[in-house]
Structures are given as C-alpha cells and as structure tokens.
Amino acid sequence: MGIFASKESRTSGGNENEPLLNDSTIPIENLETPVSTKCRIYKVPSYLRNVNKEAYTPQVISIGPIHHNEERFQTMENHKDRYFNSFIDQYQINSENLVSAIRGREGSIRSCYVETVQLGSDDFVKMIKLDASFILDLFLKSRSGGWTIDDPMRVEAWRLGMVRRELLLLENQLPFF
C-alpha cells in the first residue's frame, strides 16, 4: 500500500457503503486535532539522512543533546566555554542564577526532544547553559561587531559562516521559551 490510503481502507471493514464516521452524529469541530503547545525537536529520518548525510549532520558545532560529546566538536566546546565567560562578564549575569533557572525548566527542555536525552542532570544543565549562552553571545557580537582580536570567529572567518549554517540544522536545536 502506498502513502495514501485506498478507498477501501478508509471505510469500515472494506465495505464502501459503510463510512467510518457518520457526519450526522459527530460535530465537525470535534474532528480537529488540537495543536500541541509543546515544541518538538526531531532527529532527521534515516530515509532523508541516507540521501545526503552531510546535509543533515553538523560538521563544526553541536548544539543540544543529539550530537553532544562527539569528538569532532571538541574545539568548539572549548570556544563555548570562552563565550559563556564572555557573556556572563559582559552582561553581568549571575552564573548560579542561570543554572538555577535552567534546572527549574529542565523537565520542559528535555520534553522538547522527541528522543530521550541520555545525559545526567548536571551534564544536561551544563550543556544547555553553554549552548544557550554561546548562541546569545554570538548573535550579540554579530550585531554589535564586538569581536575580540583573538575571537575564533574572527581569526578563522570561515568558521562563522559554518556555525551560522549549522545553527539552522534540525538536529542542532535548543527549545526557545
């Protein structure tokens, strides 16, 4: 059977004369599916990934838990630490308050990922803290031109373009509340 159901499969028992729904007994407004209020972050289906793996897989930076702790991202993980320190210093953010806020939303954040996140609480909170502060600081620096002379995004100009592209990848997402 293809993607679309045949006429027989849309009826009860294959009898074309007996519809599954009797329009006279079920009000049309009850047939609409309610829209979910939760965000959902999915992995790319394998049938798409198999067509062009590189198109769906980050090469330079991992954001969120799906590709977290992969060896090829270690350089950017170090840069995230640097960006985090820059972010909290420049904007006078209390790191403990930030961690507390993330911990308070940990369940909501985890539930946005369709697949179960296999990180312990401390590692998960640290990852969200670093990834979120990296993204915010990157956006703020991009807008204001506030790059330091030794900033990796300035020193290796190709990196900024790659990071920007990879922030759009389906598997490289954080929920936005």
Describe this structure in words.
With 177 residues, the protein is an all-alpha fold. It has seven helices and no strands. Helix 3 (74-90) packs across helix 5. The longest helix has 24 residues, at 121-144. The radius of gyration is 23 Å and the shape is globular.
Question: What is this structure's SSE topology?
Answer:
Blueprint: H1 46-49, H2 53-56, H3 74-90, H4 95-111, H5 121-144, H6 152-155, H7 157-166
Q: Which band does the percent of strand residues land in? A: under 5%
- Total count of helical runs of at least 4 residues: 7
The mean pLDDT is 81
**Uncertain runs:** 1-36
Instruction: Write down the secondary-structure element order.
Output: HHHHHHH
Cα-atom Rg, whole angstroms?
Answer: 23 Å
User: Describe the biggest sheet?
Assistant: none
Which outline best applies?
globular
Structural class of the secondary structure composition? mainly alpha
Terminal Cα span:
41 Å
Helix content: 40-55%
Number of extended strands: 0
Tell me briefly what this model is.
With 177 residues, the protein is an all-alpha fold. The protein is built from 7 helices and no strands.
Which keywords apply here?
45% helix; globular; disordered N terminus; mainly alpha; 177 residues
